[in-house]
Design brief:
By secondary structure, the chain is of the alpha/beta class. The chain is built from 14 helices and seven strands.
Length: 300
C-alpha cells in the first residue's frame, strides 16, 4: 500500500479510458477532507514553450484558450490566474502551482487530477511528482463500448477497438513496468466501485495513506461540478449529467441490451490484431467473477 508521511501534500493522479468511471472516483476521493479534486485539466497536452498561441495536444484549442477555460472551470480570479501563469516555467510547474492554489483555497492539503490521458504520461508524472500516486480505473470493455455507442462517439467496432487498445495498451505497459511498486500504481474496477463503494474506497484511501472517512464511501451526486460545466461550456455530456445523480449500479451490464454479438466479436478480432485479446478477455472474466461473488454475498 502507498504509505505517506502524516500530513503529506503529495498529489494523486487518476487516468483511464473515458466512460470507465474515472470521474466518479475523482468525486468520491474529493469528498475526503484531505483532497481537493476538480474537473479535467488536460495539462499534459500544453505546449508551454510555444507561448499563448501554442497548441494543446489532441485538442483543437490554443494554450491561451485552455488556460482561460481552466480559469472559468475552477472559478479562479483573473489576477490570481495571471500570477500563476507568469510564475510557471512548464506545463508540470503550472499544474502544480494551479492545483496547489485551488487546494489551499478549498482548505485542503492534497490535490487529485483526473484526465483520462494521464495514462500516457506516467513517466512525466513520476518524474515531476516523485511521491504521487496513480490510480487506473478499468471497466468491462463491453460496457465501455455500449456507453460510447449511446453517445455516438467511438460508436462502431472500427472506431472503438483502436481507441480501447491505445488506452488500455498504455496502461497495461505501465502496470507491467510498475508491478513491483504497489506504492505508486493501483487499479480500481468500476463494477466493484459501484457495488461495494465502501470496501473499494477504503482500499483507495489506504493506498493514498490517509485515514478513513465515511464521506469517501458514498456518492450522492456533485451538483456543483454539473452546474459549473453547464455555465462555462453551455452544455453537458452524459458523464457530467450522471455526476449530478447518486451512485447507481444500473450501468453495469448495459452491453447486453445496447450491443450485438457481431459487434463484440468484431471488437475482439481487432483487439486480437493488436495483441491485447488476452487482456481484453481477462477484464471480462474478472467482471463476471466480481458480479458472481457480489451476488453470492447478497444471497448469503
Amino acid at each position: 500500500m502507498h504509505m505517506q508521511a502524516p500530513g503529506t501534500t503529495a498529489p494523486l493522479f487518476i487516468g483511464g479510458l473515458c466512460r470507465s468511471g474515472t470521474s466518479l472516483l475523482r468525486c468520491m476521493i474529493g469528498q475526503h477532507s484531505a483532497f481537493f479534486s476538480g474537473l479535467e485539466t488536460h495539462w499534459f497536452g500544453m505546449d508551454w514553450q510555444a507561448g499563448p498561441q501554442g497548441g494543446v495536444a489532441e485538442r483543437n484549442e490554443t494554450l491561451e484558450e485552455r488556460l482561460d477555460l481552466l480559469q472559468q472551470l475552477f472559478e479562479v480570479q483573473p489576477d490570481d490566474m495571471a500570477r500563476i501563469i507568469k510564475e510557471s516555467r512548464s506545463a508540470t510547474h503550472f499544474l502544480n502551482r494551479f492545483m496547489s492554489y485551488c487546494t489551499s483555497r478549498a482548505g485542503k492539503r492534497r490535490w487529485v487530477e483526473k484526465t483520462p490521458g494521464n495514462v500516457f504520461h506516467l513517466v512525466t508524472i513520476h518524474a515531476a511528482w516523485e511521491h504521487a500516486g496513480f490510480i487506473h480505473v478499468v471497466r468491462d470493455p463491453r460496457d465501455v463500448f455500449a456507453s460510447f455507442k449511446g453517445s455516438k462517439t467511438y460508436h462502431t467496432p472500427e472506431l472503438f477497438a483502436p481507441h480501447w487498445c491505445r488506452f488500455l495498451g498504455a496502461s497495461h505497459k505501465a502496470r507491467e513496468h510498475y508491478k513491483s511498486d504497489d506504492k505508486w500504481f493501483m487499479d480500481v474496477r468500476y463494477e466493484q466501485l459501484v457495488f461495494q463503494p465502501v470496501s473499494v474506497m477504503k482500499g483507495v484511501i489506504d493506498f493514498v495513506g490517509e485515514g478513513w472517512e465515511e464521506a469517501a464511501g458514498r456518492f450522492d451526486g456533485n451538483a456543483h461540478d454539473v452546474e459549473v460545466v453547464r455555465k462555462v461550456l453551455g452544455w453537458e455530456g452524459p458523464t457530467t449529467s450522471r455526476l449530478g445523480t447518486p451512485l447507481l449500479t444500473d450501468r453495469v451490464g448495459i452491453w447486453k441490451k445496447q450491443t450485438t454479438p457481431k459487434e463484440i466479436n468484431r471488437i475482439r478480432e481487432m483487439v486480437a490484431d493488436q495483441g491485447l485479446l488476452s487482456y481484453f478477455d481477462a477484464m471480462i472474466e474478472q467482471t463476471e467473477a466480481d458480479l458472481l461473488a457480489i451476488g453470492q454475498r447478497a444471497d448469503a
